Amino acid sequence: MVVLAGFMRILSAGFVRHYHGRLLNIHPSLLPRYKGLHTHKRALEAGDTEHGCSVHFVTEELDGGPLVVQAVISVQLHDTPATLAQRVHVQEHRIYPLAIRWFAEGRLSLGEQGALLDSQLLPASGHLIRH
Known about the structure:
By secondary structure, the protein is of the alpha/beta class. It has one domain: 3-Layer(aba) Sandwich (Rossmann fold). Helix content is 28%, strand content 27%. It has 3 helices and 8 strands. The protein has a 5-stranded mixed beta sheet with strand order 1-2-3-4-8, with helices on one face. Strand 6 and strand 7 (120-121) form a beta hairpin. Helix 2 (39-45) crosses helix 3 (81-104). It is globular, with a radius of gyration of 14 Å. It starts with a strand and ends with a strand. The relative contact order is 0.18. The mean pLDDT is 97. GO terms for molecular function: phosphoribosylglycinamide formyltransferase activity.
């Protein structure tokens, strides 16, 4: 398993293919919304009422792999990009260890149709955790 966190480089297609099904990444948005950078600012500018973070399998598409788990939080009236980032970061520390544990226990895998947990296809949004 290769676990990426704060990894701000695009991986080569060969690397991604070599580790297919064994690469996990965490992203500070509710994918597929806000791929790439400045996710908290973009969520606030869009007037989103919910934001969060996503763990996904890495594919050749940037932030586009099958979702494993997402943590959803409410956007507060006085949130700034910094305060929203702080609250999302707390959730990252909850869901990434969970996804890693599932993978290490053999419960999480990447199938032809998407992410599988306990041999069951996860919904497109992954396993949702609301806070």
